[in-house]
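Morning F.,

Quick status update on the modeling queue. The single chain you submitted on Monday has been processed. Sequence for confirmation:
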Amino acid sequence: MDASGYSSFIRNRRLESYFDTEYRSDRETTSKAVEEVVARTKATDVYVDDDGWFSVLISWIRIATCFVTMMFTTFIWALIMLLLFPWPYERIRQGNIYGHATGRLLMWILGNPIKIEGVEHSKNKAVYISNHASPIDIILIMWLTPTGTVGIAKKEIIWYPLFGQLYVLANHLRIDRSNPSAAIESMKEATRAVVKNKLSLIIFPEGTRSRNGRLLPFKKGFVHLALQTGLPIVPIVMTGTHRAWRKGSLHVRPAPIAVKYLPPIKTDGWTVDKIDKYIELVHDMYVKHLPESQKPLPLDHTNRSTS
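Structure tokens below.
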């Protein structure tokens, strides 16, 4: 090997070594950041699970009582909805009243201590959004959503026992997420209904339920709705619900829950070309107000939005 070839070989080896070192360093830094977040989460957790047989038995009794209660209130309001069938937007308001009564009853039966803040921000028409990590989120939204609010949910909600059927009867909207063109048309329908009837909207911006309680990236639908209706966005921050009733579980734990309405975010000056910026703004507000156990991990936080 001549001198010039040998020099080139040495330079390439040094370059490879540099990039390999940089890659390992970045990976180690990210790994350490994730470990620090998990460690902080454990250090700040004050609620301890009770998975004993007595706790599980009490939980099953509470859930059964909730189901019977919901059967009763759903039957009563289904009759009201049928009488109001010719007036679709009166059914929306009656659906809200049903939610207030049923949601409050169900939370009383479940027995979780609840702290609610910022209720003064729920008095005006708005696009209300909430993080979603537990079935309890739906009960709380039923209870705390203002009268005159239309919901937007996945089309599969119709298969939820009792609640799903009344949701449809109450003239709330469903979206077929497997069909983008149908989903866009549903959003346009929601916009027309809101503007014409002076309604508010409620939507989960993550588009699905978090498996571990940590905040997921936001989809763009809620920003499009705000742009098209001109309504402000009111974030509702739910904390602790992922501990109280976990996804796929029938054990409701007496974990404390907090609900906080944040001040309205004005959208009348927003433009379509800055949608990603607005999503980042709102997502960061949630990160700021969530506890460590519900903040996205560093690997996830870089991706704040999905299409």
